[in-house]
């Protein structure tokens, strides 16, 4: 089994952590889809990461889909509740954390453009998405049921990877202000071996 992705991608990190936590053996194939000559499109027609090559004929892509496939293999611990509505709540929080990552990535890419070509409107809209998303996650984390609960869930993993990406790219540097539940969550997560071993390299 091969996991195709980049060490700095929060979506790839989410899948890596799931596999590590479940003790599933895999080979990591480092592919940056933004570099010329990347082979990411050989695994995903969209040229995006992560992709999970289970065999030559079976490849899964898009991190929520891969996460579902991993859960269906039956290895413990389970990161998605068995009850359908509970599972849906956790998956929606995963989508929220992933959406914050996507907004943060757009900010990073826009800021790589020459200053005179950057769109303040785009940057403002994406920053608002990040702030609103973090506020929503804080509210849920404070409740301690589907996020920041007794047992680690996919929502926890996705949120931890998202905040790790914000820290890496210096997006929303004050995210922790007035968000004590999220601070508690990441302090707990970042102590886990799976998170420590997948910390993205400093640019």
UniProtKB/TrEMBL annotation:
PROSITE patterns assigned to the protein according to its UniProt record, in alphabetical order: GST_CTER, GST_NTER
SUPFAM superfamilies in UniProt: GST C-terminal domain-like, Thioredoxin-like
Domain of life per record: Bacteria
GO BP annotations, alphabetical order: glutathione metabolic process; L-phenylalanine catabolic process
GO terms assigned for molecular function: glutathione transferase activity; maleylacetoacetate isomerase activity
Cross-referenced Gene3D superfamilies: 1.20.1050.10, Glutaredoxin
Segments forming domain GST C-terminal: 83-203
CDD domains recorded: GST_C_6
Pfam families per UniProt: GST_C (PF00043), GST_N_2 (PF13409)
Domain GST N-terminal: 1-78
Entry annotated with the keyword Transferase: yes
Record keywords: Transferase
Name the UniProt record assigns to this protein: Glutathione S-transferase
Organism: Izhakiella australiensis
């Amino acid at each position: 089994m091969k996991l195709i992705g980049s060490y700095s991608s929060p979506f790839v990190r989410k899948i890596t952590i799931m596999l590590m936590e479940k003790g599933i053996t895999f080979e990591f194939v480092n592919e940056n889809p933004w570099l010329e000559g990347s082979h990411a499109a050989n695994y995903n027609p969209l040229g995006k990461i992560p992709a999970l090559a289970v065999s030559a004929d079976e490849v899964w892509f898009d991190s929520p889909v891969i996460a579902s496939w991993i859960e269906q293999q039956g290895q413990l611990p389970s990161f998605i509740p068995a009850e359908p509505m509970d599972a849906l709540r956790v998956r929606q929080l995963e989508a929220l954390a992933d959406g914050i990552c996507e907004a943060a990535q757009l900010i990073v890419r826009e800021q790589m453009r020459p200053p005179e070509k950057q769109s303040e409107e785009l940057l403002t809209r994406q920053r608002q998405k990040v702030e609103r998303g973090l506020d929503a996650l804080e509210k849920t984390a404070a409740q301690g049921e589907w996020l920041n609960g007794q047992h680690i869930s996919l929502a926890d993993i996705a949120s931890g990877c998202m905040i790790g990406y914000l820290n890496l790219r210096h997006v929303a540097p004050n995210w922790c202000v007035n968000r004590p539940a999220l601070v508690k969550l990441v302090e707990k997560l970042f102590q886990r071996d799976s998170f420590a071993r997948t910390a993205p390299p400093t640019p």
